[in-house]
Amino acid sequence: xxxxxxxxxxxxxxxxxxxxxxxxxxxxxxxxxxxxxxxxxxxxxxxxxxxxxxxxxxxxxxxxxxxxxxxxxxxxxxxxxxxxxxxxxxxxxxxxxxxxxxxxxxxxxxxxxxxxxxxxxxxxxxxxxxxxxxxxxxxxxxxxxxxxxxxxxxxxxxxxxxxxxxxxxxxxxxxxxxxxxxxxxxxxxxxxxxxxxxxxxxxxxxxxxxxxxxxxxxxxxxxxxxxxxxxxxxxxxxxxxxxxxxxxxxxxxxxxxxxxxxxxxxxxxxxxxxxxxxxxxxxxxxxxxxxxxxxxxxxxxxxxxxxxxxxxxxxxxxxxxxxxxxxxxxxxxxxxxxxxxxxxxxxxxxxxxxxxxxxxxxxxxxxxxxxxxxxxxxxxxxxxxxxxxxxxxxxxxxxxxx
Length: 402
Known about the structure:
The protein is an alpha/beta fold.
């Protein structure tokens, strides 16, 4: 495939929101170049509408859309189904009354906000809690083989006429007077000009190769800490799901993912502060995470097969295991893939550079994953006002993300 000297759209990265933007641009008859970065996130949430647009509904790897997610609290266990009526029935079963604004318990609210992919825990009461529930129930969780899913999407886009560069080929982003001008790929001496572009990954990674200074669109507010645990499958209660959230007042949310019966990944978000890098603190955190799981698995201590990191040997854990797993002596060393972003300004979908948009979770960190897809719609609306477009009306899709 011979690359052109000019494209209407350049998709920088392979976040599914950016690939969806490519699909919409192709539907408008535009020339599209995709430059994958080859860095797949460990998990991602995708709107069902996007899966349908790619013809992948029900075909995505590890499609958990039909698997109820559980929100665990010290007092209750909520099963979050795939429709609004499922949630309403569960609430009525738990409390004997219908859910209304102001009656939703704080723990369930926090769990719903987290499921929607937001970077903050959310307030105790949300005026638009109906919208939050709609977002949660419209998302498909892909928590393994994300690269396989994006690979399928890229092949579909290739068949639709997109041009695709090799992963990691992006060398430079040319900016002229705070406006996107083009990009340079390895092996190509000349600039490839583009009318508009989408940054589809951690913005910092792309900001470092811009030819003009660009302020950040978000800042790191936390980072992900995780451990693995294996116990005897027969010890796991029958009601334990593949994905559970433990929500407790004044404590970080703990994600409990079960790949196969008895094989657990425990994950939580820590503040981006130096004390979280202390090995003794991390060991105590591991102990708490296992203790939480022990509340729902009877006799976990006697059915435990393996832990990683294994906090039961404090000297080994603090001197060897934890330093090799999380080798950070200060917060600046934590890689961007482990960080949780928060907003710097209300730039949302529009980066500080004209005609360069952000189609990732950083598009609007307050609403998380869904913000990446809304950013695509807003970007097309912005471009439509600047220059008339022909073909299907893409902005009409906005109603699917309200």
